[in-house]
Design brief:
By secondary structure, this protein is α+β, with helices and mostly antiparallel strands. It contains five helices and ten strands, in the order H-H-H-H-H-E-E-E-E-E-E-E-E-E-E.
Length: 223
């Protein structure tokens, strides 16, 4: 059933409507979300609002669109704002960006990517000026790429664009090691450099690289 006036409803009303349409009680939904039913009740009464990752999970369980629920959440949190103030409108047809765990700006283990992001820990709203559709985010720690990438920042890498000489990129090796580095092509090798001069360059054969995705956006953060 399509709810024709769902944009005018509060987030809590929309959640309750879609939950009931799915034939779930508050307890049922809470169990599938891994939370207490009181939390679902608080969402539906507008007392609290789910974080982005949980909202995505709700939408998957209830088989509803993320953009509509995100809009209802935003409007319920910001009553009285004009329609043009809604930040999701331009991105309605594009999903939020999956963020994959913690990768090291130095080195660390990284899940495999098969064209889409795996082992998603969170989701990130798409920046208005981000034109690429097939992207994923990686939360970074370590200080080898300071001051360009500070610990806690999220780098957004493209699955569509090809990596060029001198690009900042997410590099994943065949054995699962991950790095965020400036990449230079040197014959059959890759030269991986850090922007922090305290860290040495590293050279690895291209055949050892599983994924090489250029970074197209950096969201500054902190640990």
């Amino acid at each position: 059933m399509v709810l024709s006036n769902q944009i005018q409803m509060t987030f809590g009303d929309m959640l309750a409507f879609h939950r009931e349409q799915a034939g779930l009680t508050q307890q049922d939904l809470a169990q599938r979300l891994g939370i207490q039913y009181q939390q679902v009740s608080a969402y539906e009464r507008g007392i609290t609002f789910p974080r982005k990752g949980r909202l995505i999970q709700m939408c998957e369980i209830l088989n509803i669109g993320y953009a509509e629920m995100a809009e209802a959440k935003f409007r319920s949190q910001n009553p009285g704002l004009p329609a043009e103030a809604f930040p999701y409108e331009k991105r309605r047809k594009l999903p939020p960006i999956p963020v994959i765990g913690l990768a090291a700006a130095g080195q660390g283990l990284f899940p495999n990517l098969d064209g889409t992001a795996a082992a998603v820990d969170d989701y990130l709203d798409r920046p208005d000026d981000l034109g690429h559709e097939a992207v994923y985010g990686v939360r970074v720690y370590g200080d080898s790429m300071t001051p360009i990438v500070k610990p806690g920042s999220i780098v957004i890498a493209s699955l569509e664009a090809s990596c060029q000489n001198g690009d900042l990129a997410v590099v994943v090796t065949q054995d699962g090691e991950a790095m965020v580095k400036v990449v230079y092509f040197k014959g059959e090798d890759l030269l991986l450099t850090s922007t922090n001069p305290a860290f040495p360059e590293r050279r690895i054969p291209r055949q050892e690289v599983l994924h090489l995705h250029p970074v197209i956006y950096i969201r500054i953060g902190r640990m």
